[in-house]
Amino acid sequence: MKTVLVRLGLVLPCLFAGLPACAATLDVSVTDAAGRPVPSAVVTFAPVSGGAAQGRGGSYVMAQKDIKFVPYVLAVPVGATVDFPNQDRVNHHVYSFSPVQRFQFPLYGPGKKRSLRFDHPGTVALACNIHDSMSAYIRIVDQPYFATTDDKGRASLDLPADAGTLAVWQPQLDAPDHSVSRKFTMSAGAAQQTFSVRLRAEALPSGGAY
Amino acid sequence: MIRGALLAALCTVSVVGGTARAEVQLFAPETLSAWVDVRAVSADGEPSWRTAYGDNVEQGGFGKLRYGHETKFDLAQAAINWKPRLADTVTAYVLAQYTPGSLTDFGVSEAYIKWKPVPASDLRWSVRFGQMFPPVSMEHDGPGWSVSRTITPSAINSWIGEEVLVDGLELTVRKTVLGQDLALTGAVFTGNDTAGTILSWRGWALHDVASDRSSRLPLPSGDRQGWYRLFGDYQAPFTTPMAEVDGHVGDYLRLDWRPPAPVAFNLEYYANHADPQAVRHIQWGWDTTFWNLGVQAKPAPRTEILAQYMKGRTGTGWPVGNGLWAVDTDYDAAYLLASQSLGAAKLSGRIDYFAVKDNSKRPVDDNTDKGCAATVAYIRPVGDHLDLAVEAMNVRSNHPARVIHALAAHQSQAQLQIALKLHL
Predict the structure, then answer these.
(1) Span B2-423 CATH architecture
(2) Could you give the maximum distance between any two Cα atoms of chain B, in Å?
(3) Is ipTM beyond 0.90?
(4) What residue spans define the domains of chain B?
């Protein structure tokens, strides 16, 4: 019974969204050149039949907790509103100078929340003007299917049987626009795809008080 | 003057704060911190350089460490760190400390205002104005200008804490260029004309007593000392690190380079432009310059390597020919520190090299100093408000001026410290 409900849960959103019926689950695994899992990679699938990301009513949250942004990478559809709750015991001053969407939330304290709607696809790099070590990304996608890899470098997408482009974006990915893609045709039945990507080494964080 | 400006700024913004601008935060848990650092220590060898004053003439004053020839419990430091937010992008920073055993027990180590506008592009910048340690030390990244990997800083950064404290206006500009994170920091300053005094006349030392505005650091004691035979009563038996002697403005410039790799570099040049012939309140100007090169590397996620090399020159007094001053020294020092994180704890080891070369070669005032040190430290939190640190170090040095006090020029010394730091 539980299995049936889960399957219904997968199919129904596809029907209501007016998209082709979901064929099955695609498991995507992203690893680096040394075979280590790559977390925080956004996997998207754009079917040739089209379909844009839906501005779903789901809640999207980029929290500030323990002087960090959580999650490090948040994928949202174009038009989504993201909440920025301060779950810390200190103030934060969140901003971005990314051309996709420049903004700032001047100083706000523990327990408070700010929200912003993201209307253009692309990447918004986040920072905090008080805590230099804080950094995160919001990836705004216009593909109808997307998911973010977990700590094991894995993501699952429920896809229709269709041809299209499967892409992976990750902030440290060493490629144009930090993204790689391939043509892919989803057929009936579960499928697996593996991406081996090269990551750019990150600079050491600037420590100290200056 | 700096403190006056700080106070004025505080009052002004407090008034603005009265109109319920939420960004002003003068007193809140996150703006105030305080700690007490108590030690159990045992050290052999020479008495500490800090004890060389008044009646302790025969002790010489060349001891290299905070402690020497003693076993005791000690209140090492009590400090308050106040970091009020004056506006969205403006903060102040005040660090006041109590360090018993110094000639002046209480003082303000740092007091400055920082303006850090919200970046509108990849070009980020900030300004600091007030009393501050120039950003030389890579070890002092703990709260309140404290070191986080050992109890005792390296020779280089012990000296920064002793004698390189300025009233300055500092601008930092940061930008990513071709994937390289670059930052340029430049400052002009006053009030650091005596830097070089204790380094020349006492030599290098390794300890964690940082100076403050009212600090007086004792010079090697007694009438037979070289400095006394040259300057007599025209030099106080102590140096005040923040003295402004001649009105000249000093400067420093630092470049930080963080390539996309687990390694970072910094290079800095400091010059106080002091007039060696100027004297005020029986403190002389010392024309002091130095280069400092710093490297940080993380060869593994939990392993960190720090290294610095400093090379400089200082001089004071009167010309004695060949472009030399009556007291004229070259100095250099280096350290290599490796630190391994073990859960919340940290195990670190460091080796230090240090030297002062006396250019004037006056037998009456031989300021030659040369030595090395090895340090091992283990630091771990033992509660939300308590840190435990254990450190053992050994220092060996050759300082010919010790002979004046019938001490052997070559000395070796070991020091063991157990520190408990209780912080709010």
Answers:
(1) Beta Barrel (2.40)
(2) 68
(3) no
(4) 2-423
